[in-house]
Amino acid sequence: MVDREVAIEAKVFGRNDVRVDVFDDSYLVVPSFWRFLFRMNNTFLIDPDVILKLLGPSGTDRHSFHGQNKNGLKKEGAHGVYLEGGFYAPEPVGTRRDAVRGFPGLMTDSEPLQYAAMTDHAYDPQTVERQAQGYWEENQSFKVVEDPEREKFYCLCMFPYPSGNLHMGHVRNYTIGDVVSRYQRMLGKNVLQPMGWDAFGMPAENAAIQNKVPPAKWTYENIEAMRKQLKRLGYGYDWGRELATCQPDYYRWEQWFFTRLYDKGLVYKKKAEVNWDPIDQTVLANEQVIEGRGWRSGALVERCEIPQWFLKTTDYAQELLDSLDNLEGWPEAVKTMQRNWIGRSEGVEAVFEVDGLDEGLRIYTTRPDTMLGVTYMAVAAEHPLALKAAEASSEITAFVNECRQSSISEAAMETMVKRGLPLGVNAIHPITGETVPIWVANFVLMSYGTGAIMAVPGHDQRDWEFARKYNLPIRPVIFPADGSELDIDTGAYMDYGVVGNSGKFDGLTSREAFDAVAEFLENVDKGERKINFRLRDWGVSRQRYWGCPIPMVNCADGRTLPVDEVDLPVVLPEDIEFEGVKSPIKGMPEFYRTRCPDGSGEAERETDTFDTFVESSWYYARFCSPDADDGMLDERARYWLPVDQYIGGVEHAVLHLLYARFFHKCMRDEGLVDCDEPFARLLTQGMVLKDGAKMSKSKGNTVDPQTMIDRYGADTVRLFMMFASPPDQALDWNDDAVAGAFRYLRRMWKFIHAHAGLIASAPETPLADTPDLEAIRTRTHDILDRVCRDYERYRFNTVVAACMEMTNSLEKLDWQTKGASGASVLRESVSILLKILSPVVPHVCHVLWQTLKFPDELLNATWPVVDREALVRESVVMVVQLNGKRRAEIEVASGAAEDVVREAALANSRVQRHLNGQTVRKCIVVPGKLVNLVVG
Question: Which residues contact 266 (CB under 8 A, 6 or more apart)?
Answer without folding.
Answer: 311, 312, 315, 666
